[in-house]
Design goal:
With 495 residues, the protein is α/β, with parallel strands linked by helices. α6 links the parallel β5 and β6. The longest helix is centred in the C-terminal third of the chain and has 20 residues. It is globular, with a radius of gyration of 24 Å. The structure holds 6-O-phosphono-beta-D-glucopyranose.
Length: 495
């Protein structure tokens, strides 16, 4: 475990939802487990870092600590909870009120930070409309030197708005100071996908069009919009999940081995994949992209309302809560292999997984079962549990040659015990330690926006809204029809 060099973690939006649910609990996990150079148990040396929480409301640090007691504590998982460590963690947090509309206040911030050694990390856990004023304020106070800036999605709502944000941030910070978070890249299972592909020689020859029939990537959620109706209404599943998480997973699955594991080497390869995605047009969007919106239904045994009945959502809403699509990559390795992506809220189960369907045997020497694509299949499950499962056909015991599907299982929690890092914890540690590989570079982000632009444009011209699906199902029937055109279907695993 490396101890980070001294740093100050400046958290803008310190009383917001993201801070209380994700950022502060993740910082506490890292603190508690000694990864911040702080004390994993009472009595060890002091942390090398401090947190400066910033929000508009005037209050003293003690009042902010009380606020953390009331709002953050409940989001810390019991596996790391420790009363003493929590008090010591709070002691590393200062508070400063700041009115972003007043540039002079950034001068006060600069004076305060001048007393601290080491690198400054500015984490913008605010709405995106504040990114530009904050970056300008920081530059005016010369706080953009010796610092890193962390941005959360949504980074714009389309290519033009994301370029505008990137230009404004880029006017104050160099690209190697900018950490754009896509929390899927911090998930353990995504790291394991890199380990699977590039740490083992046996998979490489199997990772190509000659053997692979199709690839499916699913991120399904049981939850609805969780009281965020107003935000979600402006966002929808395409911007919330496809443009970022799903396309990042696709890029990692499809990328070539990078020259090294350096940040730019990895990001160069992901970018090449995003740039090789076949451009969509009206015709292919109409045929290959399905959008849905949940109606009322049930999750388990509980009845849940339709999206349009959620608080903050107008009854006439056309916002999609589900997207399924077929993407194609025009490069040497993947030409002709469809990538099916889908995501949605209020689906049958919370699951995120990547399914690699292999081709059928050249001819059915041992019967029809072997002539089905997908009889051999590699399933990489990201959540709720992490596992890799390889499906094969084996002979049933007894007379005759009857084949049956069996699987080889790798369940990570059986091999690795002890502390599991969560995605935010990993990403925040990477920011503190100056490691950029798991953050999205500007060109990648813009390539992803460029690819989804024809979908956005087509939908905005359509009067017909999304197709309805009942909450608790797997989306509208059109999502199954999309795969049925090629004689295949979505794989829904029992794990
Ligand atoms: C976020 C989306 O980026 O990812 C949310 O804004 C979504 O709408 C969440 O619920 C899903 O993340 P995870 O890690 O729970 O799969």
């Amino acid at each position: 475990m490396t101890t980070p060099s001294p740093y100050t973690f400046v958290l803008f939006g310190a009383t917001g939802d993201l801070s209380l649910r994700k950022v502060l609990p993740a910082l506490f996990r890292a603190f508690r487990t000694g990864q911040l150079g702080a004390d994993a148990d009472a009595g060890a040396g002091a942390s090398t870092g401090r947190i400066l929480a910033i929000a508009r409301k005037p209050m003293e640090a003690a009042a902010y600590h009380k606020w953390c007691e009331e709002h953050v504590r409940g989001h810390i998982k019991s596996d790391v909870w420790d009363e003493g460590a929590w008090s010591r963690f709070l002691a590393t947090i200062d508070y400063m009120p700041l009115d972003l509309g007043r540039e002079a206040e950034f001068g006060v911030l600069a004076e305060r930070l001048a007393q601290r050694q080491g690198v400054r990390i500015f984490y913008l856990a605010t709405g995106p409309s504040l990114f530009i004023p904050i970056c300008e304020g920081l530059r005016s106070a010369r706080l953009n030197e010796n610092s890193r800036i962390v941005l959360e999605k949504p980074l714009g709502h389309d290519l033009a708005s994301s370029e505008a944000i990137n230009d404004a941030v880029g006017a104050s910070f160099r690209e190697d100071q900018i950490y754009r978070i896509d929390h899927y890249l911090g998930k353990e299972a995504v790291q394991n996908l890199l380990a699977l592909r590039f740490g083992n020689a046996i998979f490489e020859p199997l990772w190509r069009r000659e053997l692979i029939d199709s690839i499916q990537i699913t991120i399904a959620e049981e939850i609805g919009v969780e009281g965020r109706g107003e935000f979600y209404e402006q966002t929808g599943a395409l911007r919330d999940m496809v443009q970022n998480h799903l396309l990042q997973l696709l890029a990692i699955v499809a990328m070539e081995p990078p020259l090294s594991m350096d940040a730019d080497a990895v990001r160069d390869e992901k970018l090449r994949v995003l740039r090789s995605l076949r451009q969509l047009d009206d015709d292919t969007v109409a045929r290959n992209v399905v959008r849905g919106q949940y109606g009322g239904g049930a999750i388990g045994k509980s009845a849940v309302p339709a999206y349009v009945d959620e608080p903050g959502v107008p009854p006439s809403s056309q916002t999609e809560t589900f997207v399924a699509l077929k993407a194609e990559i025009d490069n040497w390795r993947w030409a002709g292999v469809p990538f099916y992506l889908r995501t949605g809220k209020r689906l049958g189960e919370r699951v995120a997984e990547i399914v690699v369907n292999y081709r059928a045997t050249p001819y059915p020497l041992l019967g029809e079962a072997t002539a089905q694509a997908g009889a051999n299949r590699l399933v990489i499950r990201l959540q709720p549990n992490e596992s890799i499962r390889l499906y094969c056909l084996a002979k049933q015991p007894g007379d005759g040659m009857t084949l049956q599907t069996v699987h080889l299982d790798l369940a990570f929690d059986q091999f690795f015990k002890g502390h599991r890092m969560d995605a935010y914890e990993r990403l925040l540690l990477d920011v503190i330690n100056g490691r950029l590989a798991l953050f999205v570079r500007r060109d990648e982000q813009e390539a992803a926006w460029r690819w989804v632009a024809p979908i956005q444009a087509y939908w905005s011209r359509q009067h017909k809204g999304p197709k309805r699906y009942a909450a608790g199902t797997w989306g509208p029937p059109a999502a199954s029809a999309l795969l049925a055109q090629s004689g295949t279907s979505w794989v829904e695993e029992d794990n």
